[in-house]
């Protein structure tokens, strides 16, 4: 992990959180579909990152967002869950010895792998967020519906961003 | 120990996850009012319902004991009921008195026969000389109002000269200014709800709605409410006026009465006969 990677990730962290807090926070379809693009940062952290560091970064990112959203704890928990799913999925689907790619981005891993990876991670994150927000099982189907619609919205944005930057990077 | 360490290290992601996730949940519960309240409520609900179930169970366990105690109580109440059926209540009621010793005691009696339609109405009650009733004792009704005086006494029964009687005359006064008058019935009035107060001096100002109470003379304790003034200034041509009043008690539905035993009646009578009558 060289300094360039660190710099890129820090830069990405700032940009994504800025966009999330100042733009996407005000964007919502009938309170049903709310995008959370900032988790892209955790999705595309380098492969070689130690688990503990990954968890700490996820925790910190969630905490930062929570302080802007006034929901202290909700996104933190969701990000930790996301980090765990990321570790599980990568350990199952990627051969650890053949890490020739620095990070799990769309350009590096291909559309099929990345979309499955993104859907899974985004779903887990959103599931935790929405159910911690609702915090009761009586509105289960409604919460699940909100969650699913938001997953679609976020996935659309994540793929959009990945497509835009993956072209530039490969050039 | 080493194996444990290897195990933890191998699945470190899971343990990190547990730790961080717990911290996240704790943060959520600590900092969000709604989530905290929901958690507290649901815990309370769980605990509460558990206690409820335990109570139901306990109730079943105690059922034998409860049954026994209920049976005992039932037996006791039944004995009481039988004894109550066989004797009738000879209750005395205490009236507060400024004299240190109790001057008046009340004895309840049931009305056996009553009439309201005649010129001179007599009421018969189920108490007699055996209960300590003597002639000319005052009688009041359980609600507000006076009934009359004892007329004749037999061992177990007595008759009352009701207020609705030509000869009945009760000393009353106006509650607000203590103006004396006499309560009478009759004089062309045969309505059992109305009576007249005579001999109130003309200089007293009386309004419709003023309360009439007993004056304390003639066997009645002072201050028993009799009725309300319904008509004033019925001119009689002299220095006294006559008031028409609505009685508080309803003679047509009289079921129980109280006989007033005046401890000092005999004393008062002997004292008053010693002084010569000025009239």
UniProtKB/TrEMBL annotation, chain A:
<feature type="transmembrane region" description="Helical">
    <location>
        <begin position="36"/>
        <end position="60"/>
    </location>
</feature>
<keyword id="KW-0812">Transmembrane</keyword>
<feature type="transmembrane region" description="Helical">
    <location>
        <begin position="113"/>
        <end position="131"/>
    </location>
</feature>
<keyword id="KW-1133">Transmembrane helix</keyword>
<protein>
    <submittedName>
        <fullName>Rod shape-determining protein MreD</fullName>
    </submittedName>
</protein>
<keyword id="KW-0472">Membrane</keyword>
<feature type="transmembrane region" description="Helical">
    <location>
        <begin position="143"/>
        <end position="165"/>
    </location>
</feature>
<feature type="transmembrane region" description="Helical">
    <location>
        <begin position="72"/>
        <end position="92"/>
    </location>
</feature>
<feature type="transmembrane region" description="Helical">
    <location>
        <begin position="6"/>
        <end position="24"/>
    </location>
</feature>
Automatic annotation (TrEMBL), chain B:
<dbReference type="InterPro" id="IPR042175">
    <property type="entry name" value="Cell/Rod_MreC_2"/>
</dbReference>
<keyword id="KW-0812">Transmembrane</keyword>
<keyword id="KW-1133">Transmembrane helix</keyword>
<comment type="similarity">
    <text>Belongs to the MreC family.</text>
</comment>
<keyword id="KW-0133">Cell shape</keyword>
<protein>
    <recommendedName>
        <fullName>Cell shape-determining protein MreC</fullName>
    </recommendedName>
</protein>
<feature type="domain" description="Rod shape-determining protein MreC beta-barrel core">
    <location>
        <begin position="111"/>
        <end position="261"/>
    </location>
</feature>
<dbReference type="InterPro" id="IPR055342">
    <property type="entry name" value="MreC_beta-barrel_core"/>
</dbReference>
<dbReference type="InterPro" id="IPR007221">
    <property type="entry name" value="MreC"/>
</dbReference>
<feature type="transmembrane region" description="Helical">
    <location>
        <begin position="12"/>
        <end position="29"/>
    </location>
</feature>
<dbReference type="Pfam" id="PF04085">
    <property type="entry name" value="MreC"/>
</dbReference>
<keyword id="KW-0472">Membrane</keyword>
<dbReference type="InterPro" id="IPR042177">
    <property type="entry name" value="Cell/Rod_1"/>
</dbReference>
